[in-house]
Structures are given as C-alpha cells and as structure tokens.
Amino acid sequence: MTARTATTERQKRLGYELRRMRTAAGVSAEYAAGLLGVDRGAISAMESGARAISIERLRTLACNCEVTDELYISGLTEMAQPAGRRWWDRYRGQLPQSFLDIAELEDRSIRMRAAYSVHMPGLLQTSDHALAVFRMVIPALPEHEVALRLALRVERQQVLDGENAHEFVAIVHEAALRMQFGGRTVLRAQLDHLLNRSEQDNVTVLVIPFDAGGFPGAGQTVLYAEGPTAQLDTVQVDNSHGPDFIHAETQLAKYRAHFDLMEKLALPPAASRDFIRTIASQL
C-alpha cells in the first residue's frame, strides 16, 4: 500500500493505537515488521497514520501483542476500514481538514458530551446565530468562506436526527445563554431553538448558572466523544488556532471527571429548560 499524501484525525488515531498496542507489549518495530511481512519503514508509516493497515494484519498484530479486548479490537478494525466517500468529503480542499475531522468524529461517536462557557453548542445553533459567530472571526472571513462554514455546521447537525441519532448532552453555562451574538432577536430565536432541541429524547441540555460558582475547565469549549470502548474515546478542545484532539489515557480520565462534576453542578433538565425560558423572557 502506498503512503497517503494527507492523513485524517481518524487515521492518525489508528496509528497512535497501533503504536501504543505494540509498545505496551514490548514488541519492537523490527519484530512487528517481520510478523506482518513488511519493512520497518512501513511500520513507522502505519503508526503515523500515513499508511493503511489491512484488517488481517491488524488482527495479527493484536494477537501477537496479547490484546484480548474484543471491543477494542473491533473498534480498531472499524477505524481501519476504508471510509469511502462521506458527506463531509464535499468540503475537502475548501475547508481546513480539522473541520472535517470534527464532523467524522461526531459521526463515529457512540455518545457525546460537550461543555460551553461562552458559545452555544454548535450542534444546536441556529443558522443566524452561527453566522453571527463566524462573522466575528479575526481576520474577517470572505462571505464565501462564511457560507462554507455555515453549510458544514448545518450538515453536522444531522447527526442528532433520524433512526441512528446520537445521544448528545450539552452543558451550557449561563454566560453563553446571555451572549447576544447577532443581537437580541437572534438570541431569542436561538434560545427557543435550544428549548425545542432539548425536548428530543436523544438531546439533553443542562445549564450551569452563575450561582453555581466555579467549575473545572472554565473558559474551554470541549467535546467528549465516546467510542466503542473507553480506550477509544476522544476529547476535542476548541482553540483560537483551531481544534485540538486529545486521547492520552490520563487526559481522557481527567476530562471524564470534569464532565461528571459539571453535570453535578448543573441544573436538572427540566429546571434547565425553565432557566432558559426565564432568560428568553427578559429579552
């Protein structure tokens, strides 16, 4: 198999897991190369995500690294499957790869939890609210770039609908509920949309009021995407330079604890809806 010219976050993650599996078992790259019938350079390329690995070779490596967790192995084999063309591929070459990586991460997740201290949840934003956010970017984006970002965001929201709708828990701080991106009218419509979405069986909106005091990870926008097993979970953190993807075991444990505590600090679903209605009535 030839090396890829560009790698997606999913491909990089698979490579990371291959290397973690090999090194945890004390298996050298040279041994792995001989086992799989490739040269050492191919092992390095597989572990960087630059080269694909067949399902057969992946299972052979897992067996010889004494990995017995079938859920974990099945998760890896799914990641190794050729993805085929997906809806987000229409934006390839037009938007940053990291934007497409977020769409793929959401699509492949089993369950998502996300926390927002300033912004509304991207998967729950109205088009007008999203437009107002995109138009605040510095340096300013050309209108065709804004339109592309909006189109991608709207399509990403489909992950919450249909027969295979994903479970989504959004923890939103009161500050985000009061930020008037686009003005009062846009915010009022956004809050109404948030309330409507929160009535879906697969969507939970929890509000952390100012009165709750401090909370871990304040100031960050964080998505915790659950995989088929905890080892394959992923944290995605928004930054001004773009999204970061985190999957080190200690970091995953830290963010799980963050979300558990934030859920305890937040109002229950019904009380959260009442809180949002109160803010909307004040506009």
Entry keywords:
single chain; 283 residues; alpha/beta; six-stranded mixed β-sheet; 12 helices; 49% helix
Question: Can you walk through the features of this model?
Answer:
The protein has helices at residues 9-24, 29-36, 40-48, 55-64, 70-80, 97-108, 127-134, 143-156, 174-178, 184-198, 249-265, 269-281; strands at residues 111-116, 167-173, 203-208, 222-226, 234-237, 244-246. It starts with 8 loop residues before the first helix and ends with a helix. A hairpin with a 6-residue loop joins strand 5 and strand 6. It has twelve helices and six strands. The model has no long low-confidence stretch (mean pLDDT 94). By secondary structure, it is an alpha/beta fold.
How are the elements arranged and paired?
Layout: H1 9-24, H2 29-36, H3 40-48, H4 55-64, H5 70-80, H6 97-108, E1 111-116, H7 127-134, H8 143-156, E2 167-173, H9 174-178, H10 184-198, E3 203-208, E4 222-226, E5 234-237, E6 244-246, H11 249-265, H12 269-281
Parallel strand pairs: 1-2, 2-3
Antiparallel strand pairs: 1-4, 4-5, 5-6
Helix pairs in contact: 1-3, 2-3, 4-5, 7-8, 10-12
